[in-house]
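Q: What does the assembly look like in three dimensions?
Context provided by user:
Components: two
Sequences:
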Amino acid sequence: MNSTVGLSSRHKFAYTWPLAWGVAFAVVAFIWIGGDLWQWAVKAPKELTWKVEALGSCTSVRLCVTGFFKFMVSNEAYIFPWTFKEFTRFVAACIEFPYQIIRSFLASGFTIPLSGGESWQSPPISWLGLTVVLTAVAYRLRDWKLALMVFLCVAYLAVFGNWESAAITLSSIAVAVPIGIVFGALIGILGYRYEKFERAITPILDLMQTVPIFAYLVPVLFLFGFGPVSAVAATVIYAMPPMVRITMLALKTVPLEIKEFGKMVGCTKRQMTWRVLIPAAAPGLMVGVNQVIMLSLNMVIIASMIGAGGLGFDVLASLRRQAIGDGLEAGIAITLIAIVLDRLTQAWASRSPAPHHETKPTLLQRHKNLMLALLILVGTTAISFVAPFFAQWPEQFEISTGQFWNDLIKWININFFDELEAVKVFLLLNVLKPVKAFLLALPWPGVLLFLALAGLQLGGIRLAILVVSCASFILITGQWTKAMITVYLCGISVVIAAMIGITIGVIASRYPVLKRSVLVFIDTLQTLPSFVYLLPVVMLFRVGDFSAMVAVVLYALPPAVRYTLYGIQQISPSLIEAAKTSGCTKRQLLTKVQFRLAWPEIMLGVNQTVMFALSMLVITALVGTRDLGQEVYIALTKADTGRGLVAGLSVAFIAIITDRLISAAAKKRKQALGL
Amino acid sequence: MDSKPDPILSCSEVWKLFGRNAQQFLKENNNVTDDMLSENGLIGAVRDASIEVDEGEIFIIMGLSGSGKSTLLRCLARLIEPTSGQVMFEGENLLNHSEKQMIQIRRHKMGMVFQHFALMPHLTVLGNVAFPLEVQGIDRSERENRALEVIELVGLQGRESYYPRELSGGQQQRVGIARSLSVEPKIWFLDEPFSALDPLIRREMQDEFLRIQSVLNKTIVFITHDFNEAVRLADRIAIMKDGAIIQIGTPEELVINPADDYVEEFTNDLSRAKVLSAKTVMSEPEPDAQVGGRVSSSAKIQDLAEELIKSELPFHVVDKNDNVIGKLTRDAVVDVLVKQP
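A: Here is the predicted structure of the complete assembly.
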C-alpha cells in the first residue's frame, strides 16, 4: 500500500524539487544583486543580545554560558552533599593521587623526607628493566615478532632521548585509560539496562564526539585549573564516549540464546550482567578498551595545552620553535607508544588460553612470572644507583635526526622555493580566495533556505528543522562570518581530499599488491598525531590558509580511500561477473557498475572526511586561520568558557548539519538500490 | 492406562500476540480470525495452544519456521510472557509466580538445550557444565564433581578442560546437553538441538539422545522442524502451523489419521513401515489358524517385515499379556511396504 502511494506521489511531483531549487537560487541571486537594499540580509548579523532584569549579566548565549560556569565554581552551586567546588576538588584529588604515584614510579622517582630536613631521592624504574619486561610480556603474549617490535619501539624512546617525556605521558595515560574504561563500561551497562537512559545519553554522546576537542579544554581548564589533572579529565571526556557506545552495542549483540540461557539457569540480574553478559561480550568490549587507549593517545598533544607535559608538550614546543626534527621525533614517539599499547592489548585480548592438554597453570606458576618481572624491575632500578647506564641512556649515545630534518626542509626551501610558492600562490588566487569571497558574500537567509530545502528533500521536515536550527544557533551567536570561513576551508580541503582519496581507492581496488601498501600508508597516516602534519607544512608554506588546507587534506585523506576501497570491494562478485559477461569494458565496469553500487559507501567516506577535516581545522588555528578554530583557541588562552563553548558548539553544529544531510542522502541512495 | 496421572507440564489456551493492546484485544474478542488480527496490527505468534506433557514422555513440537513452535516453548519456560492463557507446572500456574520464584524453579527444575549451543566462550567444558550450579552458589568441589558425572554421561570425559571453540559442533552440543542436565531438572527443554549439525552427526546425536533418555527417563519437550526427527524420537507429536496446534498424537496416529492435508503432506515422505505397528495393520484374530509365529502388537512393521515375508503363514499378534488379539498376513505387510498413501 505505502509503496504505491510513494510511487505515484514521486511521479506527480517529479518537477517539484528542481523547481523549488530554481526558485531558491533566484531569490538568493535577487538578494545578492540588490545588496544595498537588503543590508540586513547580506551582512552577517551581530551576536543576538537581550536585556532581561531577572537574568542579570546573562545577556547573550555566550555570556550566559560564562555566567553559568562562574556560578558553578562559586560557593553557591550544590551537588549534594557538597558544593560543586568541593566536588571538583574531590574529583581532582581522585585523579591527582594515582597520577602522582605512577609518575613517581615511571618518571620522577619518590622523594622520601629524612630526619634533619634532608630527603632521599629514589630513582624511577630503570628504563632497561622496563624494556626487558615489556619485551618479555610481548613474547609471552604472542611470539618473538611482537617481542622484537615492542623492543624496538621502547628502545627508540630511550635512544632518541624521549624516555622521561614518554614516562610523563604514560603516567597520565595510565590514569585516564582505566577511568575511561570503567566509567564508560558502567554507563554503557546502564544504557543497556534502561532504554530511557540510553535514549537520554545518545544525543549527548553524539555531541561529545562532534564538538572539537579544543572546546572541551576551556571548561575543563576553568574547573580544574592548569595542570595534569585537567589534562587527564579532558582525556577521559574525549576517550570515554566510544567505550559507552561499544559497551551498549556489545551487550546488545550478545546472542539471544546466551541471554535466554542465563535466564534458564536462574541467574539474578546481577549474575546475568557480570557472569553471563559481560564475559559473552568480552571480545566486543576489548575493542572499546583499545579505542579508549588510542583516543587517549590522540589527545596527548592537545592535553599538553592545559598542562599535561611530556611528549605532547615537546611536540607543541617544537611547533612553536619551528624545530621540525624535535617535533617529529616526539610525535613518532607518541605513535610508537600507541602502537605498542595497541598491539599488546590486542595480543592480550586474543591470547590463547592455557592449552587444554597441559595441566592447569597453578597460582604459583602464574606468580612466578610476575615475581620474575618484579625482580627484574627492582633489580635494574637498584643497580641504577651505581651504574648510570641503568638509570638513563647515556646522553652521548643519544641519536637525534633533528638536524637532518631541519637540513632537509632548508634544502627544499632553498632549491624549490619558487615552485612551491608558485603552486601556493596559484591555488590561493584561483581557488581559495574566490571561494572564500563567494561564501562570505552569500546572504545568510539564502543559506538557511538552501539548508532547509536540502533537509526537506533528503530527509523530510524533521531533518529540515534540525539543520536550520543548528545553522540558526551559529547565526544568533554572531559567528556567521567565522563559520563561513570554516566552511570554506573545510569544503575545499574535503573536495581535494575526496578527489585524491577516491582516485587512490579506485586504483588500489584493482591491484591487490597496491592495495596492501595503500592500506599500510593510510594506517600510518592515521596513527600519526595530527600535529605532526602541521610541522613540515608550516615550514614549507609558512602560516596561513594554504598551510591549513594542506594539513587538513593530509589528515582527512584516509577515510576517503578506505571507504572507497571498501565500497568497491563489498560489491557482490556475481554482479561483477554478470557485468563482465555482458561485455563491459574496464571503464564501463567502473562507471556503470562499481561506482554506482559503491556510491553510498563512498558518500559515507566523504562524510567521515568532513568530520576529520573539521577536527583538524580547529587545530590549524595554531597556524593562523581566522575561523571558528581560532575563536576556540583564543577562548582557551583567555579561559573564556562562554566564548570557547559557543564556538566549539558551532563547529559541532556544522559537523552535524553535514553529517545528517550526507547520511540521509546515502540512506536514500541505498534504499533506491535496494541494499 | 485407565486413570491417567496429571500431566507434569501443561498449558491451556495460550496466546502470544505481538503488537499494541494485545491483551485488551483478546479480552474483547472471542473467535479471533486472521483478518481480525491484521486489522488490529497484531501478529499471532502462538494462537490458542493447549498441550499436556506427561511424566517421562518425549513430547515433540514440530513445525516449519515461523510456525510459533519456539515461541510456545518459551512461553512454557516463561522466557516469553504469554499474552493470555495458563501454564501449569507441577500443579501450579507458572504465570502467577514472582520473578524470584521463577528463578528458583528454573535453577532447580528446568534445563534447556539451545539450537546454537549458547556455550560461554570463556569457560571450559567443565566450567560450562558447572555454570548452572555455580549460579546457585554451590561450592567449587561439589559442583565440579557433579559436572564430571554428567560430562561422563554425554561421553565427553577427558575433554573437561577444552574450550568450546576447540570442539566440533556435535561435541559442543554434548556440552550443551550436559550443562542442561547438571541440575537434574524435572523437565528438559530442547530447542532444535540438532538442527545446526550436519546430517550424519545429527543422526548420531539423536541416537545419543535416546540413549541418555533411556538412562534418565526425563520429561521432555523437544522442538524440531524435521518431521523425520520427530517421528524417530517422539512419544507424541504436536504439529504447529501459523501459531496454532493442528494435531497432537503419536507418530502412528498422525500417519494413519492425519487431521488435514498439511499434516498429510509431512507423512507422505515418511517410510510407513517405520511408523506403523502390528496393531494397526493386523486383521481380525483367528486363534485356531496355523501360524508362523507370534509378534508383539507394538512392534513396528519395518522390524517384522523380513520374517513375515519369508514365511508362508500369517502370524499371531499378541498383547503384553500374550493374548492373541489379531492376525498379521504377508499381504498386509507387503501393502505397507509398497503402497504409497
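Follow-up: Residues 1-9 of chain A have pLDDT under 50 and may be disordered.
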